[in-house]
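Whiteboard transcription, Tuesday session. T.W. wrote the structure tokens on the left side:
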């Protein structure tokens, strides 16, 4: 997981997708890919080209806003490419379902609403996304804890690092150089014994790194798919996960079986429309879960990475 992020950034040919959740929109799921030429919608197979030329862009989020970088500052655009929150922040993250986004100003982080107004003042050293239960990890005095939507610290800042709670109520945390999981009371429910971890997904599995290899655990912390992959990703909604073996990428099912052979130079995640970006022989395109090539209206020179896990 961490390895592929580094490789993709170095190549500056990175795919990122975002799917509007079905319970948050009346239309069918849409996946947007931020490219050097605008935004590609894999459901409609069309483009939105911003009216301004931005230095960098990220994916659209459930509220139809995406952060952008303009003259070294961050702001937000709508799906028409219009700048609706001025680019005045030093750094920014996407809005979550509660309508709040973490932004940095003058070296401190806080949260704004979709009008660009401060809701939680900027006094944190770092801040990340709110989960569906209204908790967000923040950094204070070198340690990470969790706040509620009023900005109150409800889980003390005692962790070396922390990510947002997943849909199962688990949050990956780092303690003394090892990773485990806590519940929403701040209790350690899976001991910190892994070299790195990712969220639990709807599959009930979480990606972990152990002794330089990647595998998957269940919610009891048991290793259910052995850690023997050189790199790996989380399971998508179609039940497939990207893995690397001997320098090539393919996809496994939830039994750990390789169902799409490891033959690609690089590979991304399957989106809600059943497509995954792959690189083969120097070209990027899409495959579906049956490994059949999909026609892409154009190939891209630069696609931008968004990840809460970096």
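and on the right, the sequence the group agreed on:
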């Amino acid at each position: 997981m961490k390895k592929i992020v580094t490789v993709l950034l170095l190549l500056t040919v990175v795919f990122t997708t975002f799917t509007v959740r079905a319970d948050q929109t009346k239309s069918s799921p849409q996946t947007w890919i931020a490219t050097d030429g605008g935004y590609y919608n894999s459901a409609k197979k069309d483009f939105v080209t911003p009216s301004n030329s931005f230095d960098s862009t990220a994916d659209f989020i459930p509220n139809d806003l995406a952060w952008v970088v303009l003259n070294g500052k961050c702001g937000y655009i709508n799906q028409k490419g219009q700048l609706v929150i001025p680019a005045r922040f030093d750094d920014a993250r996407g809005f979550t379902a509660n309508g709040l986004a973490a932004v940095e100003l003058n070296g401190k982080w806080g949260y704004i609403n979709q009008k660009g107004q401060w809701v939680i003042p900027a006094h944190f050293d770092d801040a990340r996304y709110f989960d569906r239960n209204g908790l967000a990890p923040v950094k204070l005095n070198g340690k990470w804890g969790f706040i509620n939507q009023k900005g109150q610290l409800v889980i003390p800042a005692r962790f070396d690092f922390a990510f947002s709670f997943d849909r199962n109520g688990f949050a990956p945390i780092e303690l003394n150089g090892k990773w485990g999981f806590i519940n929403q009371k701040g209790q350690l429910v899976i001991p910190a014994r892994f070299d790195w971890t990712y969220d639990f997904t709807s599959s009930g599995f979480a990606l972990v790194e152990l002794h330089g290899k990647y595998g998957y655990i269940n919610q009891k912390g048991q290793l259910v798919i052995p850690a023997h992959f050189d790199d790996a990703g989380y399971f998508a909604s179609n039940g497939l996960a990207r893995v690397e073996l001997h320098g090539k990428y393919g996809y496994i099912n939830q039994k750990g079986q390789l169902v799409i052979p490891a033959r690609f130079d690089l590979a991304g995640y399957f989106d809600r429309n059943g497509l995954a970006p792959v690189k083969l022989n120097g070209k990027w395109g899409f495959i579906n879960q049956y490994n059949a090539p999909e026609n892409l209206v154009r190939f891209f020179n630069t696609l931008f990475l968004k990840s809460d896990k970096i």
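Someone added at the bottom: The helical segments are 2-11.
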